[in-house]
Design brief:
With about 260 residues, this protein is mainly alpha-helical. It contains 11 helices and 2 strands. The radius of gyration is 18 Å and the shape is globular.
Length: about 260
């Protein structure tokens, strides 16, 4: 039922942005549905302030730091399965071996990933997803979209998220739905709590927050695709937004700016 509801919601969003916003002239060529996206951004911000942020604050204030670290490590270890699958789909077998080594070390010596032993051995966490795989095989340009409740994305990365979840991750193998969604909730909460430490940047910058978040998203994704940003200021972005990706894996590739198809 939940899956069907989410699917219907995404189809409704797609229909709305294609019919209701296409006539509006965007301020950025990558963001042709800016009217809808700004509304969704405002909605998400209000929902976050009322429901998510207070819980995240309690989580980060009262849960001991070692427990927070262990929880984050555990979910990072689960994501290694997705990393490995996308490495293989990109024919990056060296990275696949690298990520497989992390998975094996942390799942055993690290006690199902609670301790990041591989990082201590010099195998730092990477990030690969099916959106990156699509980019690797030529789907470079995709329009920006803000998904209610979920946040910034592109149409390419929406496809990537669905493929990662249903085909390239451990989540479908968890048969008990209550346990599965409870784990997903804890994962989301842990990520959101980590962002609390980085929100001070937005508070001191006299900028359009929507534009800042949109540009940060594109720069961060470009960083993952190619190993750097066009403006060369990814350190500023990473200091303000932790998108759950620790390191750039592809420093040798040439940077290409994104524009929607």
């Amino acid at each position: 039922m939940l899956r069907r509801t989410v699917a219907c919601a995404l189809l409704s969003i797609a229909g709305f942005v294609m019919t209701g916003c296409a006539t509006q002239k965007p301020s950025d060529v990558r963001d042709p549905y800016e009217v809808f996206n700004r509304a969704a951004f405002g909605f998400n911000k209000k929902m976050d302030a009322v429901f998510i942020k207070p819980i995240a604050y309690v989580y980060i204030k009262y849960l001991p730091q070692p427990f927070q670290l262990g929880i984050g490590n555990f979910f990072d270890n689960m994501r290694e399965v997705t990393n490995i699958a996308n490495d293989v789909l990109q024919l990056e077998f060296g990275y696949a071996a690298y990520d497989l080594s992390r998975l094996l070390i942390n799942s055993t010596i690290g006690i199902v990933g609670i301790f990041d032993v591989a990082n201590a051995l010099g195998l730092e966490h990477r990030k690969e997803d099916f959106g990156q795989t699509l980019y690797h095989w030529g789907y470079h340009n995709s329009a920006y979209i803000v998904i209610p409740f979920l946040g910034p994305s592109t149409f390419r990365d929406i496809i990537g998220t669905g493929v990662d979840y249903y085909a390239l991750s451990l989540w479908p193998w968890i048969e008990n739905d209550w346990k599965k969604y409870a784990l997903i909730g804890v994962d989301y909460l842990d990520i959101r709590a980590g962002l609390l430490k980085k929100e001070s940047v937005l508070d001191v910058l006299a900028v359009d927050e929507y534009v800042f978040m949109r540009d940060a998203y594109f720069q961060h994704r470009q960083y993952l695709f190619n190993g750097s940003t066009d403006e060369g200021n990814n350190d500023d972005i990473d200091s303000s937004l932790d998108w759950d990706d620790k390191h750039s894996p592809k420093e040798e590739k040439k940077v290409n700016k994104e524009e929607p198809s």
